Amino acid sequence: MPYEGEVNPQGRRGASAARLLAEAAALKQFSRRGFLTGAGASGLLAADMLLTREVQSQRRTNRILAVPDEFADAYYPDASWFLFPGYKTSWEEAQWILNSLRGALNKRARLAAVGYSNQGLDIDSLVITLIEYVRAENLTKLFFYGHSFGGMVATQVAARLLEIHGVEVEFIVLDSSPYSKHDVLDQSWFDGVVFLYERGFRFPSALRGGYELGERVIHKDERSWRQIMDQTLEQLSPIAPSSVLIQAESAYIYYFEGARFAGKLGSAKMAYIGNPRDRTVRYQTAVEAWAVAFKDNMVSTDLQTTGAAPAHASPGWNPNIYRPILEELLDGFFPLPRGGSRVTVF
What we know:
This protein is of the alpha/beta class. It is 50% helix and 12% strand. It has 12 helices and 7 strands.
């Protein structure tokens, strides 16, 4: 008989046997359906990882993404729009925006979007990619559409094209573009992204997706629930821009100085369109700063995308608001000739 406080060996063996029986019973209750469900989920996850890796591997360099349009391709072989995507905008969304604006843009030039490399934002590399496309397509007239922060990129690329290659851009549309980091309203997130990027930390997609969902729910009045889910899920999909690219875009906005490119665009015309209810970029300070710095190029700053939802740079969601504004701009500063059998800008 064991002493007081001593563990009974038989009792210990009994407890072990009872635990084994309980585990066996639980194992028996684990159905074949549950096993297959788990195996299927694992298979889907593995397939998604492989697809993501494959898609990302194809986006390691900048690329010009032509959007076919029979009318523009036939009548304007020497002219092209280039859409510079906004912050966190995928290649697919950039092409979708162009398709949404097709009826307003294709009366002056062909359509193409700029796809940023997932390795990061490199302006020198972008200029090389664009000039190679211009020469390969024999383009002589360039029109830039700067979607949100893409307006910053479009302006710098236009200045570099003129400085290095002697190629002058005809027109730059700034769609809700910040002039500097001070125009960005969500400073706490913005500063944090740049701080971590400069210290080598890369955001995992799940964390980024969680932020996207939270940010859009906070600004629910700007979006429908469908828009919230579509835009959040895109950041978790294989086509989403990489965390490296997004953080590089953040750093670019953080250090952008528009004054460096003032007076370096030649005779290019610029127009600012935006929404006073914008809750991403402070509309009033941004439009005023662009107008002052680029006073020699700016031809319009009073056209507003009133009624657009979301209010910030949303031509894809609100083409019926954006197209008339763009048509007014283009008809005013690049009028189409009357008469003749062939439509041409000049």
